[in-house]
Amino acid sequence: MRGKRFDATAPAVMAIVNRTRDSFFSGNRHADLDSAKAALESALELGADIIDVGGVRAGQEGEAVDAAEEIRRVVPFLEWARGAHPGIVLSLDTWRSEVAREAASAGVDLVNDTWAGHDRDLVHVAAEIGAGYVISHTGGLPPRTDPVDVTYGDDPLDVVRDVVTTLADGAAQALRAGIAAERILVDPTLDFGKTTAHSLEVLRHTSAIASLGFPVLQAMSRKDFVGESLDLPAEERLEGSLAATAVAAWLGATVFRAHDVRATRRVLDMVATIRGDRAPVLALRGTRQAPAADAG
């Protein structure tokens, strides 16, 4: 996207800028325009590769936001971002085709459809405006619906099979719509339509999702499956999120939607280095070029 390539040697951090007053994580509420601008600038300084902009809280607890209000929140900001940083990769987090169409003026690079094609026109709009597209899995739930008594079968692997099948079908639809394979991302969408046990099972099988042959996006930052695993509120879920990030990166995910850009960037770079896909920045220890030991 925009001349940039993300893969195992260079995994991408997708920074989150929520133009909302009610995001589940209080550290990412940027309804104020100046706050949103500052968040974007900070994310870029800390190593973000993609900026994901949304105008509606995902869960049902948030305030009602119609399409006109969502457009008002995100489109002018995206246009400012494109003007201020022409080379950045911009992602739009929406499930509405009319919002994506309005965002064409900002040169959006990616449409992050977190509600699994609920609006059937959205993938076609993404193709029309030349954007990539994120395929998600929500277990069939409509937008802004929290899971209740959700089940995929008695076998713990049933949820993995459902995720893989749904993402494969969605990717095939995106291909038919005219989106290039390398610009189709598949996101197992942990927490959405899933219990904590489901999300953990899917995370353990990230490699099965990667085997579909499309870039894998993992959006795990400070989510409830992390909170319930450790019994922690959103404000205290950084370490758990980073542990999940390291596992998913090792298993083949290449794009990570995150609130904590610098920490995520460092984890991804370290995992890629341990795996051998990225060289250390320095490799001086034990060589003649190593600095002399501190005599003090």
Shape: globular
Give the mean pLDDT. 93
Q: Percentage of helical residues?
A: 25-40%
Radius of gyration, in Å, reads: 19 Å
H/E element order: EHEHEHEHEHEHHEHHEH
Q: How do the strands line up in the largest sheet?
A: 6-5-4-3-2-1-8-7
- Strand composition percent: 5-15%
Query: Helix count?
Result: 10
Characterization of this structure:
By secondary structure, the chain is an alpha/beta fold. Helices cover 38% and strands 12% of the residues. The chain is built from 10 helices and 8 strands. It has helices at residues 33-45, 67-84, 97-102, 122-128, 158-177, 196-204, 206-210, 224-230, 238-250, 261-275, and strands spanning 12-18, 50-54, 89-93, 110-112, 132-136, 184-187, 217-219, 255-258. The protein has an 8-stranded parallel sheet. The chain is globular, with a radius of gyration of 19 Å.
How are the SSEs ordered, and which strands pair?
Layout: E1 12-18, H1 33-45, E2 50-54, H2 67-84, E3 89-93, H3 97-102, E4 110-112, H4 122-128, E5 132-136, H5 158-177, E6 184-187, H6 196-204, H7 206-210, E7 217-219, H8 224-230, H9 238-250, E8 255-258, H10 261-275
Parallel strand pairs: 1-2, 1-8, 2-3, 3-4, 4-5, 5-6, 7-8
Summarize the structure.
The protein is globular and about 65 Å long. It has ten helices and eight strands. Helix 9 runs parallel beside helix 10.
Features:
296 residues, alpha/beta, 8 strands
